[in-house]
Design goal:
heterodimer; A: 164 residues; alpha+beta; Ubiquitin-like (UB roll); DNA polymerase, domain 1; 5 helices; 5 strands; B: 467 residues; Aldehyde Oxidoreductase, domain 3; Aldehyde Oxidoreductase, domain 4; seven-stranded mixed β-sheet; five-stranded mixed β-sheet; 13 helices; 22% strand; iron (chain A); 2 iron, 2 sulfur cluster binding (chain A)
């Protein structure tokens, strides 16, 4: 089977990549575009470390053949980092000591980004459901859940101020 | 899981109500939260893990692994692998300059008892036989699956006590017996007081058996490295090892090169928990890089991480306690059978830790322990979070609860009665310093609203109350 060109809008930048059939999105992001913030943990969809947002939905990029998401909009951890600072979710993770080895953080952040975009006021149960496919082996889940909850509240507050 | 995650208590300060005469200093750092230095890198995805390094022309290694627990290798034929498009080379034991090693030889633990690649036998399921080096990961996987290996099965030893029977099949020929020898003894020994006298005097005897399985650390980032040959003839090793210097020194010994030829870039580990202190991937990646003069990547897939990365050792523990009516333990005898798997790695050291921990955080006048480091045809075990101690604690504290329940004693009071104090001599002849068991139990009881009688609330690790 022949390779083909896949067009993606990655973190707002148009990208064209040549992919062999079956090449996964995580491989395109990491190996071709060198966006290494997205992590590869298991390559079989069981750890969530490679989670990115594709057309508004959090997906595990190790399970997505790149040719099936031609022309999609992809957001990675690099795309949620403001110039010279941290986004509200990132800040909440740092302040809440929700990082340890760091390997799960990108995936957690992308799942949380998609969650809050869809539901600005998630309950703890909503947050747990959203990150249920993301494995953390160090910090435990409570600080991560708290950080997502705190960030969502902060973002709602900021939105309200902006609206007034 | 509970549905509500409590908010963190903020503004926590140092609790000075315990050991009040010891910590009157004006602490500026202790008790104050300070941000983690690596947190910003982690949340922006800019922390550099070994696999975030990309080098053009990198080759990939996949290993052909034993499909048997224990067998002679009658034939290894790498030729079919070489026919796979993209396969560059197949490494066998002959390509490894000093094939036999043991990680802790660096601190004089020996003998070398493990080959980097199998020679004439395999001793556990998944043991590396040869390494296929290829242009792509897919070609390496295909190549590794095509290597032809003929096995002649040998009897398999999978149980720690079976392994020590006189007629048991020998697992590891270097040792010539199925246990690690400690200074001429077949096990690590602790002898303190006279346990038999203690048992004779005791009102009750409690004897129970405890057992654990191997436990995999399961870091989210699997074990791996990338090795890059440099223009000056050195090799740069990008690794997720937890032990850069174990890796540097052991790899140099295996390659038979001076350590100055190698540079290890590490320290950023995507979860380790002890699972990344052995030297598993770097030597083969270095050999492949030297033989091809190209960057080489060797990363475990998830299945390899589960099957062949060293887990916490399985243990079987027997505890016999002699206890008086009032709850004082007067004698404790423990027998540990700790499963090292087919090779030593860090387990002889773990067994020593287990022995030093006997009889737990309690002062018991008569103690006896036999701690066996046993070889079996299972995945070699090694470090994991408090290895050598954690499973012993599971057994000890289960035993404490059982005794308390049988004697109708409050489990906290039973522990307080036997708790060790500063100045006590432990079974391995070290003086106890900085004990805090009593204070921790007192505080825990308070936090959960468990009322302790006055005499137990007044107890202290620093001094024994007058009789």
């Amino acid at each position: 089977m022949a390779s083909r060109i896949v067009t993606l809008l990655v973190n707002g930048t148009p990208q064209e990549v040549i992919v062999r059939p079956g090449t996964t999105l995580v491989s395109v992001l990491r190996d071709q575009l060198e966006l290494t913030g997205t992590k590869r943990g298991c390559a079989d969809g069981s750890c969530g470390a490679c989670s990115v947002v594709v057309d508004g939905k959090a997906v595990r990029s190790c399970l997505i053949p790149a040719e099936t998401v031609d022309e999609a909009e992809v957001t990675t951890v690099e795309g949620i980092t403001p110039v010279g600072g941290l986004g509200p979710l990132q800040e909440a993770l740092v302040e809440g000591f929700a990082t340890q080895c760091g390997f799960c953080n990108s995936g957690m952040l992308m799942v949380a980004t998609a969650l809050i975009a869809e539901n600005p006021d998630p309950s703890d149960a909503d947050i747990m459901r959203a990150i249920s496919g993301n494995v953390c082996r160090c910090t435990g889940y409570h600080p991560i859940i708290r950080a997502i909850r705190d960030a969502a509240a902060k973002m709602r507050g900021a939105q309200q101020i902006a609206a007034e | 899981m509970d549905d509500h995650i409590p908010s963190e208590t903020s503004g926590e300060t140092l609790d000075r109500s315990y050991f009040s005469d010891e910590n009157q200093h004006d602490f500026k750092v202790v008790g104050q939260p300070s941000p983690r230095l690596d947190a910003r890198g982690h949340v922006t995805g800019t922390t550099r893990y070994f696999e975030d390094n990309h080098f053009r022309g990198t080759l990939h290694i996949k290993v052909c692994r034993s499909k048997r627990h224990h067998a002679k290798l009658t034939r290894i034929d790498p030729a079919p692998a070489m026919n796979v498009p993209g396969v560059v080379r197949v490494l066998t034991a002959k390509d490894v300059p000093a094939n036999w090693y043991t990680v802790l030889r660096l601190i004089n633990v020996g003998p070398n008892d493990e080959p980097v690649l199998a020679e004439d036998s395999v001793r556990y399921l998944g043991e590396p036989i040869c390494a296929v080096v290829a242009e792509s990961e897919a070609a390496a996987i295909e190549g590794a699956s095509r290597v032809q290996v003929d096995y002649e099965d040998l009897p398999v030893v999978l149980d720690v006590e079976e392994a020590l029977k006189p007629d048991a099949q020998i697992v590891n020929p270097v040792h010539g017996k199925n246990y690690f020898e400690y200074e001429g003894h077949p096990f690590r020994r602790i002898r303190f007081g006279d346990v038999e006298k203690g048992f004779a005097e005791a009102d009750h005897i409690f004897e129970h058996r405890y057992q654990s399985r191997p436990i995999e650390q399961a870091p989210v980032e699997t074990t791996g490295c990338i090795v890059k040959p440099e223009g000056d003839g050195r090799l740069t090793i990008y690794s997720d090892t937890q032990a850069c210097f174990f890796t540097l020194d052991n790899t140099a010994l295996i390659l038979d090169v001076p350590t100055a030829k190698l540079r290890v870039v590490g320290g950023t580990v995507g979860g380790g928990f002890g699972g990344k202190v052995d030297v598993m991937v770097e030597p083969l990646a270095c050999i492949a890089a030297m033989l091809t003069n190209r960057p080489v990547k060797f990363v475990y897939d998830r299945a390899e991480e589960m099957q062949v990365s060293s887990p916490r050792a399985a243990e079987r523990i027997y505890i016999k306690d002699g206890v008086m009516k009032d709850g004082r333990i007067v004698a404790r005898k423990m027998t540990f059978y700790i499963d090292s798997g087919a090779y030593s790695r860090h387990t002889p050291y773990g067994v020593t830790k287990a022995s030093a921990h006997v009889p737990g955080p309690y002062s018991i006048p008569n103690v006896w322990a036999d701690c066996h480091c046993v070889y079996t045809n299972r995945t070699p075990s090694s470090a994991m979070r408090g290895f050598g101690v954690t499973i012993g604690d599971f057994a000890l504290e289960s035993q404490m609860d059982r005794i308390a329940k049988t004697l109708g004693l409050d489990p906290l009071i039973f522990r307080l009665k036997n708790a060790y104090r500063d100045g006590d001599t432990k079974a391995h002849r070290k003086k106890v310093e900085g004990a805090a068991l009593i204070e921790v139990i007192q505080r825990a009881a308070e936090l959960v609203g468990h009322d302790l009688p006055e005499e137990y609330r007044k107890m202290s690790s620093v001094k024994r109350e007058a009789k």
